[in-house]
Amino acid sequence: MRLVTRLARKARGKTRGFARIMPALPLLAAFSAFAAQAETVSAFRLENGLDVVVIEDHRAPVVVQMIWYRAGAADEPAGKSGIAHFLEHLMFKGTDKVPAGQFSATVEAHGGDDNAFTSWDYTAYFQRIAADKLEMVMEMEADRMRGLKLDPAVVLTERQVILEERAQRTDSDPGALLGEQMRAALFMNHRYGVPIIGWRHEIADLTREDALAWYEQYYAPNNATLIIAGDVTPDQVKDLAEKYYGPIAPSEGIKPRIRPQEPPHLAERRLTYADERVSDPYVYRSYLAPERNPGDQKTAAALSILAELLGGNGQTAILPRALQFDAQVAVWSSAFYDGTALDDATFGLYVVPAPGVSLGEAEAAMDEVLAKFLQEGPDPEAFDRIKTQIRASDIYAKDDAMGLAKLYGEELSVGLGLEDIQSYTAVLDEVTIADVMQAAHQVLNRNNAVTGWLERPLEASPEVSPEQAPEQSAAPAEAAPRTEPATSETEAAE
Amino acid sequence: MMFRALVAAVAILIPGLACADIPIKEVKSPGGLTAWLVEDHNIPFTALEIRFRGGTSLDDPARRGAIYLMSGLIEEGAGDLDSKGFAEARDSLAASFSFAASTDTFSVSARFLSENRDEAVDLLALALNRPRFDEDAVVRVREQVLSGLRSELRDPSAIASQTFDQLAYGEHPYGSTGRGTLASVAALSRADIVEAWKTALARENVYISAAGDITTEELGLIIDRVLGGLPETGAPLPGAAPWLLPPGVSVIDFPSPQSVVVFGQSGISQKDPDFFAAFVLNEVMGGGRFSARLMTEVRDKRGLTYGIGTYLVGMDHSDSYLGQFQASNDKVAEAISVIRAQWAKIATEGISEKELTDAKTYLTGAYPLRFDGNAPIASILVGMQMQGMPIDYPNTRNAKVDAVTMADVKRVAARLYQPEALRFVVVGQPVDVTPSP
Question: Is the Cβ–Cβ distance between A167 and B258 less than 8 Å?
């Protein structure tokens, strides 16, 4: 992700390394409900194969342009991990028309913001700007689809930036390191087991030629989806898209995305990562799980509801009720699932034991809750409440055009069609308790899973605490970033 | 309760200001409360923002962390509903309420559907007026806060901020975190939480805004239902914070390949006539753009960090100017010297015509983009009121940015940037960085 500043600032506010995989709004995030009315969403395809989706929202004079390439970390060749993300950074390093650094500077000089992000299944670029600047950003985005020119010195410096990014996001965060080890253990054959940012030793060897080869192979109109959301009409978008993207020739080298698949998982995998920076240890289990597929989203929908039932709400869900309310085994517990993936998805469980409770005891208690659930099923009223929230999420989602643009872009990029996206709320709504139980029995099998323990080394070095830090003899025993509230927004002090 | 969400939601959205055609209405409730409203019937829900000035700075010093813990307990049962009953009632309505205590504010953000607005409002009123603070909930949520505090003891970003604040503010509430200490939180009782609730939620300190599918009459009735029963007065606000920050460098050993660095000096009040010039200068130095000077010098040209930013931080009782970055331990020294050099350069040379123009077009162009949904609008409106801005501020704000001249930025740069006053707090194992005596 190039998304640094903002993410880095957010990261200061989280209280545990795990926060990044815990959706803040579990319901909306997990259900990613299709929200816009059919009449406000339109789609067409240019002759060169570029798919275009227009999401109208005329409440404010703002537009978002997002282009999604169907190329992500899981498409990388062995030995080149991180190249998809490296190229994402390099896409800001200039064309003949727009020199290095000038892409963002131009957008910013017109009051807009831009950024990009990379995942296993896609790489996406976006700008958010006044609606009357759409033509300008469209011209620039189309220009860099094929026009990238890379100065070798700039490439080397940017590789340093990416190594710093890895140090910040992963190497400085024991929870992120555990997650990386767990994915590598969970996926035995699929590239989903390799981190998006890449393994450090492979990032360090990536070259300009590697980046350009990746660019040539995947950056083409017939391998992309363009999403325009905001105060625009489909006719306007069509004219502009034909003018700027239309002349770009399609690539003949785009092949179907068939990637190495997982063999049957026959044996449970377990690992323990010890790091002296850990405060509260925790148990994290990740099961291999089915994903949403075109025309076949029912199991994924059932798993979304299962995650909500087990751990979506900290006061009412099954895991927190059992582990935090009925017994004081845990301080936190949660369950989560995201089925939007081209290949296999994962289903996660997470328990932070209460003081005095061991990781083994916490895991055993978690498994007991799961076993009981598999026998007894959910409370029908809890199930109904989740359905109510699913239906409401359609209404709330309309308040956020950028969120809708992301939702369409991501779902189209993993191979779902418009009809899949637009029917997903209905699919969720039709899920029965029997469907949820069938999905639960299918997925909650430890042979499909890796269980990770994050803990401190046995001979841990003395706690790093403010009292012991050289300059802090007078500091109270805490360290919350009090300045966070004010600094988490860009314009903290206007 | 979800403390995680609470942590994420504490942003004090200081309104950027803006675009001319945001029709903000002032609403007077029959009970005498004032709210600002943007009525928009496109989507059948309402976003309601309520803020109480004071926040965790109102803590009794002997009960540090009480208001923060109270903010996590207020949704753990009210009236006849226990924790589970309250959450079930809320979810059955598909409403969402979030409560957060930060340094200067206690905030309530609510979102509810038009189809069951009355029930949702009753439930919100119940939480604010008749919270139960059941003993078992106090124990459970207190453990969650303690877990968060233990994490922060091993979180280099938290250690850096806390150290910086302690150096800058000493014994003033700003010098310590409102989440309390392991010792102070462990000692909090139910009685302390009740007292915190009475202290932090007073009508004299309240600010209210709404956006969405609601009329002025409806909003007036709602705010009386939600807030009418609260006490008129609360604890006194703290006085002005001292600024004690000594210049120099602190190094706190922490086992990590990267160091976290927080740096800064004193800032400038938003009420100062030079504020907009300072605001433009900061945008050029380390604002929200990739093209800002520090992003260019520290990241793009030298590859020393993944991201760096600076912020003019306006709080109720202090104005500071802060920055932050992370860098590998062997790059920290170079990054610090680049920042010092940039600080000195801008103080003496100011900025170029082009930088001034680009910063202005960015700031004025980005402003209207913030008003793009009910939730962000409600948040901006309440922030404007807390800062004492007039209701038509969005119409005049861009003109104030545009009015900043080259002479202004030159003069204000010399006043604002004090390279000799900068303090860097480094948490990590930096190479060749010598701490100040």
Answer: yes
Task: Output the pLDDT for position A23.
Answer: 28
The DSSP result for A405-460, as a single string, is: HHHHHHHHHTT--HHHHHHHHHHHHH--HHHHHHHHHHH--GGGEEEEEEE--TTP
Which pair of structure tokens corresponds to residue A110?
Answer: 């017109």
Instruction: Provide the token pair at B71.
Output: 């903010």
Strands B34-39 and B206-212: parallel
Cα distances (angstroms) measured from residue A410 to each of A32, A75, A102, A176, A417 = 11, 16, 27, 23, 11
Cα distance between the two ends of chain A: 28
CB contact under 8 A, A104 and B14: no
Residue A108: how many other CB atoms lie within 10 Å: 27
User: CA Rg, chain B, in Å?
Assistant: 23
Instruction: Compute the residue count for chain B.
Output: 437
The pLDDT of B76-91, averaged and rounded, is 96
B150 neighbourhood in chain A, CB within 8 Å: 279-280
Whether residues B94 and A391 touch (CB distance < 8 A) is answered with: yes
Instruction: Please give, rounded to a whole number of angstroms, the shortest distance from the CA of A260 to a CA of chain B.
Output: 33
Whole-model pTM: value is 0.89
**CA max distance for chain A:** 69
Least confidently predicted of A22-26, A192-196, A371-375 = A22-26
Q: Do B84 and A128 touch (CB under 8 A)?
A: no
Cβ distance B153 to A474 less than 8 Å, yes or no, reads no
Q: Please, where are the H alpha helices in B74-116? A: 83-92
**Helix A433-443, helix A359-376: angle, nearest 10:** 140
What are the catalytic residues of A? 88
Tell me the one-letter amino acid at B349. Answer: E
Q: Which residues of B are less than 8 Å from A398 in CB distance? A: 42-43
B310 close to A (CB below 8 A): no
Question: For B162, which of A164, A385, A466 is closest by C-beta distance?
Answer: A466
Identify the helix (H) or strand (E) that includes residue B99: strand B96-101
CA–chain centroid gap for B266, Å, is 18
- Report the interhelical angle of B83-92 vs A380-397 (nearest 10°): 50
Write out the H or E segment, with its range, that includes residue B107.
strand B105-113
Task: Check residue A368 and give its pLDDT.
Answer: 98
Chain B residues whose CB is inside 8 A of the A385 CB are: 88, 91-92
For residues A243 and A247, give the distance between their C-alpha atoms in angstroms, rounded to a whole number: 7
B115 reaches A (C-beta below 8 A): no
Q: Which among B13, B177, B254 has CB closest to A464?
A: B254
Q: In this structure, are strands A345-353 and A282-289 parallel, antiparallel, or unpaired?
A: antiparallel
Amino acid identity, position A5 = T
Measured CA to CA, the distance from residue A345 to residue A417 in angstroms comes to 18
Contact between chains at B182 and A477 (C-beta distance less than 8 A): yes
Closest Cα in chain A, distance from residue B134 (Å): 12
CB-CB under 8 Å, B144 with A477: no
Q: CA-to-CA distance for B244 and B175, rounded, in angstroms? A: 10
Distances (CA, A) of B101 to A308, B24, B134: 27, 27, 20
Cβ-Cβ contacts under 8 Å, A114 against chain B: 290
Q: What is the largest CA-CA distance in chain B?
A: 65
Q: Which of A276, A395, A484 sits opposite B161 (nearest CB)?
A: A484
Q: Which residue of A has its CA nearest to B322?
A: A487
* A-B contacts (CB, under 8 Å): 389
Distance CA B71, CA B272 (A): 33
3 state DSSP class of B365:
helix
Give the H or E element holding residue A392: helix A380-397
User: Over 50: is that where the pLDDT of A35 sits?
Assistant: no
ipTM field: 0.89
Owner of token pair 């017994």: A327
